Fold this protein.
Amino acid sequence: MRAAALFLHGRYLRRDLGFYRTLAQGRFTVAVDGGYRFFHAAGIFPNMLVGDFDSLRRVPSNLPERTVVARMPIRKDATDAELAVEYCLGEGFQSIDIVQPSFGEPDHYLGNVMLLRLVDRWSRRGRARVRARLVGRAEEILLIHDSRVTLRSCSGDRVSLIPLSSRVRYSCTGTDYAAHNVLVRPGQTVGLRNVITAAVARFNVVGEALLIHRWEVR
């Protein structure tokens, strides 16, 4: 599987660098503007650096020739993160991790979450299926659209479902609250803060929803 990892601007704490390194291993890595600070702290270089440099300020002078630099205008109709996702979709990557290390500003964070819809629309237009998630040190956020997700070896972790479409039918097993074809509408909180209790947990959604999987930081 061709996989990409996009590292966004945020706080990459030194104690968490090992975790973020694992996300970069074996993937096409993209530093999105200030996300380059992860690579600097980790002592590695990305395959690509993209941005308008409002956060990073300038292109690092020690970049190797193999790192592709895509400089974007400051005045544009899309964020650097959206342009990076669109690049990965156009290049045929089948898996995209959007790495968001800290919450930051709420509009940016929520906008980055909704990039998962961009990937979902791409997949549903008859193109190849692309797996995507927004991932931080303690959580991952997935968009489920008429599909299912299986989580393994996650006992004790928390899972929340947030409906996006007007009607969502939700089923789950291997959790403290086992649901079967439960109707969840936007604004309802019945899908929040379930706990995984089994070695294998399965979640099925008819409709469109965000699945937030939060694990213990060890």
